[in-house]
């Protein structure tokens, strides 16, 4: 490679000494261009993100009040933290939080370990027809969530499902939509949808692992399993964190699948998950204050958990570096 | 791209047992992902009797053409409307969204201004915020401006894609060398003309990746249309199938059309993913690098 100035300095040099115009006009033109390129996105950011978030927070502190024993004109009054108190003492909301916690505890480890194991196996060179296997595993990602839920709902429904019929022949009766199986049934839908997608992310990261590192571990006498777990896995640490983070954010919003299954399962109430609770509060009960308070709580949970994952990953990363 | 068997170091070449285990596990996983999709395909070909006997695997009881005809006839051909709506929301929305996001990501990469990283932090924070949190305020805003239950109430919010800005910045770092821009400046190109003529062609693959991500997201979109729309003629496929599925619990003649409708709704994304394979692969890698 020839020695040229670094991109940074070349860029600065042209900014300082442009071919035409003075430095000030160039700066102004650059600033204008930058503004034009960014403006559409930031208009959207304000309109469909900042204002709605602010509105949700604002709404959560206000409530409807009807003076005169509920017969007077309706008015909106400041109620402080009352909506939050109501949400936190509502057993259905606490149950929804419990459900989502159980769902995440089951789903995220299964997803990450499963996707990582598959990626390591495909990367090990032992698997046959690697690109076909990848394409097949990725396929469910192209199936919209609602349709994945429809497919699995039918596969869970006695009278429609070949799976249930097959199990019945073996004298097994599994009520997939019954009280114990409903959370695992939803976890299964989510796993089916996302396993291949996350596997591709891990696989892409594994492809970037330098061959010398892998070879060095072989020289040190590590077998394929040891190489996969002790050498390759730590090297794709940042991808794992990203997948955990996105899976978590996605899982906390759980709505589509239980909403569809609730049409056929009495075990799924209208307030099964926090998102369903918000929908029910806002559009069935028309209690905007309650819905907004639940939204803010869900938002804070998401931010808190994401922050926790980042902290945990930084510490784990530091430990890995200290070891190396 | 993939290392072949031959050039792996000998010690890494897996032993026979290990290879058998790996292939079994991968094979079972492939069956797990493929069989439900295959069931959808077979079930779509069957008439209602064959469906309710749970024997989609047996021969006979085929009524593919009948099912397809029913799908577009039932409820006055509503499914065709939904399909066109979904295509409009998704293709148009994803195209505009990708252009807007990548332009912003490019500007974040190539220009210096005050509080840049703080602003970028805000964009990244927006990735985390759940859709369901924004839905009620968006609904109230839409009803305040009279947009509720219109095309725009679903179309405008899906244009917002903060993750696309993040990807756009990464692609801009990777694909658009600063030297090229410097040379274009020396030639006297205007900043915006330079973006359109020089940078945008280089960003092509990144643009396609962001487009594809957003296409999937909008095609999947369910919560927002459910909140915003009450007019059945404006529904996307996802919401329409949800409504039909709830009808099916009462009137079983909807089962075959829900299944056939699901099958057709899967096709556009599969086609898009297969056609644009090399782009989304590079996109996933870029997203994973940081």
Can you walk me through this structure?
The complex is a heterodimer of chains A (about 325) and B (about 290). Chain A is mainly alpha-helical. Chain A has one domain (about 85-324): MetI-like (MetI-like fold), CATH 1.10.3720.10. Chain A is built from 14 helices and two strands; from the N terminus they run ααββαααααααααααα. Chain A has helices at about 5-15, 25-60, 80-90, 90-125, 130-140, 145-155, 160-170, 180-205, 210-220, 225-235, 235-250, 255-260, 275-285, 290-324; strands at about 60-65, 75-80. Chain B has about 290 residues and is an all-alpha fold. Chain B folds into two domains: about 15-45; about 70-290, MetI-like (MetI-like fold, Orthogonal Bundle), CATH 1.10.3720. Chain B has 14 helices and no strands. Chains A and B meet through helix 1, helix 2, helix 4, helix 5 and helix 6 of A and helix 1, helix 3, helix 4, helix 5 and helix 8 of B.
Gist?
The complex is a heterodimer of chains A (324) and B (290). By secondary structure, chain A is mostly helical. Chain A has helices at 7-16, 23-60, 82-88, 91-123, 130-138, 145-156, 162-169, 182-207, 211-219, 224-235, 237-252, 256-261, 274-284, 288-323; strands spanning 62-65, 75-78.
Keywords:
heterodimer; A: 324 residues; mainly alpha; MetI-like fold; two-stranded antiparallel ribbon; 2% strand; B: mainly alpha
Number of helices of chain A: 14
Largest sheet of chain B: none
Number of domains of chain A: 1
**Average pLDDT score of chain B:** 83
Mean pLDDT of chain A: 82
For the termini of chain A, the CA-CA separation is 31 Å
Query: How much strand content do the residues of chain B show?
Result: under 5%
Low-confidence stretches of chain A: 1-19
Major β-sheet strand ordering of chain A: 1-2
CATH homologous superfamily caption of the largest domain in chain B = MetI-like
From the helix content, strand content and strand pairing of chain A, which structural class follows?
mainly alpha
| Overall 3D shape of chain B | globular
Structure class of chain B: mainly alpha
Going by CATH, what is the homologous superfamily of chain A?
MetI-like
Order of helices and strands of chain B: HHHHHHHHHHHHHH
């Amino acid at each position: 490679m020839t020695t040229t100035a670094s991109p940074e300095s070349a860029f600065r040099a042209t900014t300082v000494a442009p071919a035409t115009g003075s430095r000030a006009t160039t700066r102004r033109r650059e600033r204008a261009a930058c503004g034009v390129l960014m403006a559409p996105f930031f208009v959207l950011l304000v309109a469909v993100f900042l204002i709605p978030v602010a509105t949700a927070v604002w709404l959560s502190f206000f409530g409807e009040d009807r003076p005169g024993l509920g017969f007077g004109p309706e008015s909106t009054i400041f109620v402080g933290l009352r909506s939050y108190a109501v949400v936190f003492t509502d057993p259905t909301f606490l149950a929804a939080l419990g459900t989502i916690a159980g769902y995440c505890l089951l789903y995220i480890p299964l997803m990450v370990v499963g996707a990582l194991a598959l990626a390591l196996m495909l990367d090990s060179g032992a698997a046959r027809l690697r690109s076909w296997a990848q394409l097949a595993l990725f396929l469910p990602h192209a199936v919209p969530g609602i349709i994945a839920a429809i497919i699995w709902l039918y596969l869970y429904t006695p009278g429609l499902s070949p799976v249930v019929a097959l199990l019945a022949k073996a004298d097994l009766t599994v009520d997939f939509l019954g009280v114990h199986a409903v959370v695992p049934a939803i976890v299964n839908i989510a796993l089916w949808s996302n396993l291949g997608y996350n596997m591709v992310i891990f696989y892409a990261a594994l492809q970037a692992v330098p061959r010398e590192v892998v070879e060095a571990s072989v020289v040190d006498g590590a077998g394929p399993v040891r190489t996969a777990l002790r050498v390759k896995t730590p090297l794709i640490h940042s991808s794992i964190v990203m997948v955990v983070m996105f899976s978590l954010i996605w899982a906390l919003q759980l709505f589509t699948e239980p909403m569809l299954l609730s049409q056929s399962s009495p075990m799924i109430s209208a307030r099964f998950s926090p998102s369903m609770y918000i929908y029910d509060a806002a559009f069935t009960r028309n209690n905007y204050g309650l819905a907004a308070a639940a939204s803010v709580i869900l938002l804070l949970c998401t931010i808190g958990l994401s922050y926790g994952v980042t902290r945990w990953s930084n510490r784990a990363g530091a430990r890995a570096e200290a070891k190396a | 791209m993939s290392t072949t068997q031959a050039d792996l170091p000998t010690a890494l070449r897996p032993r026979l047992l290990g290879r058998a285990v790996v292939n079994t596990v991968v094979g079972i996983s492939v069956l797990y992902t493929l069989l439900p999709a295959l069931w959808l395909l077979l079930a779509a070909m069957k008439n209602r009797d064959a469906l309710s006997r749970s024997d989609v695997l047996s021969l006979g009881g085929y009524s593919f053409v009948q099912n397809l005809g029913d799908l577009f006839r039932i409820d006055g051909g509503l499914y065709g409307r939904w399909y066109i709506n979904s295509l409009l929301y998704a293709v148009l929305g994803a195209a505009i969204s990708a252009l807007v996001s990548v332009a912003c990501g490019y500007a974040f990469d190539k220009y210096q201004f005050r509080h840049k990283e703080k602003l970028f932090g805000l964009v990244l924070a927006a990735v985390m915020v759940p859709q369901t949190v924004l839905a009620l305020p968006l609904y109230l805003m839409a009803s305040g401006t009279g947009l509720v239950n219109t095309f725009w109430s679903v179309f405008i919010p899906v244009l917002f894609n903060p993750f696309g800005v993040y990807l756009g910045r990464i692609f801009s770092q990777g694909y658009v060398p600063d030297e090229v821009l410097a040379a274009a400046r020396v030639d006297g190109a205007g900043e915006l003309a330079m973006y359109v003529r020089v940078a945008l062609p280089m960003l092509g693959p990144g643009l396609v990746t962001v487009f594809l991500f957003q296409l999937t997201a909008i095609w999947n979109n369910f919560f927002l249309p459910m909140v915003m729309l009450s007019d059945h003629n404006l529904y996307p496929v996802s919401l329409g199938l949800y409504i039909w599925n709830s009808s099916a619990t009462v009137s079983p003649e909807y089962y075959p059309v829900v299944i056939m409708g699901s099958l057709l709704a899967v096709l556009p994304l599969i086609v898009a993913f297969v056609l644009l394979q090399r782009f989304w692969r590079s996109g996933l890698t870029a997203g994973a690098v940081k």
